[in-house]
Amino acid sequence: MASKREKISDSCSRCLSSKASTQDGKARVRRVSIEGNIAVGKSTFARLLQSACPDWEVMAEPVSHWQNIEGGTSKGTGASPQTTVSNLLQMMYQDPLRWSYTFQTYSCMSRLRTQLQPPPARLLSSEGTPVQVYERSVYSDRYIFALNMFELGCINSTEWAVYQNWHSFLVEQFGHQVELEGIIYLKAPPKKCMERLENRGRAEEKGVELDYLDKLHVQHERWLVEKTTEIHFEKIKQIPVLQLDASVEFQSDPEVREQFITKVKTFFNTL
Ligand SMILES: Nc1ncnc2c1ncn2[C@@H]1O[C@H](COP(=O)(O)OP(=O)(O)OP(=O)(O)O)[C@@H](O)[C@H]1O
Ligand SMILES: Nc1nc(=O)c2ncn([C@H]3C[C@H](O)[C@@H](CO)O3)c2[nH]1
Fold first, then answer.
1. Residue 74 above 70 pLDDT?
2. CA 266/CA 72 separation, integer angstroms
3. pLDDT tens-digit profile of 86-115?
4. For a pocket test of ligand 1, which of 196, 244, 255 has the largest count of ligand atoms closer than 8 A to its C-beta?
5. What CATH number is given for 30-70+82-270 in this structure?
6. PANTHER family in the record, alphabetically (predicted)?
7. DSSP element (H, E) containing 67
8. What is the rounded end-to-end Cα distance, in angstroms, of the chain?
9. pTM for the complete prediction?
10. For residue 40, how far is its CA from the centre of ligand 2 (angstroms)?
11. I want to staple 247 with a disulfide (CB 3.0 to 4.6 A). Which of 187, 188, 212, 265 is the partner?
12. Residue ranges of domains in the chain
């Protein structure tokens, strides 16, 4: 009997679109980000996608980098130099006024690095619809988190002006390399995200309150549903968005998982 993974992969090859090639005969790799509130289930959903189709490459959000920033070596009193390690995620949650701007510079830089990684060879030689899937993006860094921190007063107007200036410069300089073809928006009520956040129990998030998740929810709705957020990049203004109801418990229900995968495949084939 075929395993679940084989089953999903079989159905994957059954609904391939014809190969869209570039001039050098390589497959055109689509780039899609998964967006959504904290603990809505992006990483969980990303793992589902990774196991569903070999043509999809999922790139995780680099949270562990934010939790372990190696500082310079500190010279003690004669003892061997020690490397200091700081947890910027924790610092940002503990003292957002002091650390939010620093956090956004680092998170955005790490997202940029992720989005600049070339697709693996297996995607370039794919006969199907190869897709690089990112957990969040340089766009949510600005239009969800940094904007929210500015509106909360944790980033002041000078910091916000500086952030926007270098963000626009970098995105324009890297141009096509950091564009996206689509966005998957995982949506759930903030209360559901709060439940999941508490169950997950990530130490740095102990002080996160429902009000913060409410505000992030509003930012996602403004950007991806109402389209009232001012966006500064033409392609991102018109980007196709697949909205999925992430409040359903797909982990325990194979049918729900299949439905999600089918929707995602159909979406990818339109990009
Ligand atoms: N559909 C789901 N049904 C039930 N529980 C879920 C579902 N998706 C995720 N979870 C659980 O919710 C918690 C948060 O999920 P996950 O870590 O995937 O969220 P995330 O959106 O990636 O979080 P973050 O915003 O911090 O990156 C985990 O404990 C996970 O097991
Ligand atoms: N302030 C802030 N800016 C960001 O760009 C950002 N991206 C993610 N996060 C927080 C949410 C989760 O706790 C945790 C993992 O997603 O990190 C962010 N926080």
1. no
2. 48
3. 999 999 999 999 999 999 999 999 999 999
4. 196
5. 3.40.50.300
6. DEOXYGUANOSINE KINASE, MITOCHONDRIAL, DEOXYNUCLEOSIDE KINASE
7. helix 63-67
8. 34
9. 0.92
10. 12
11. 188
12. 30-70+82-270
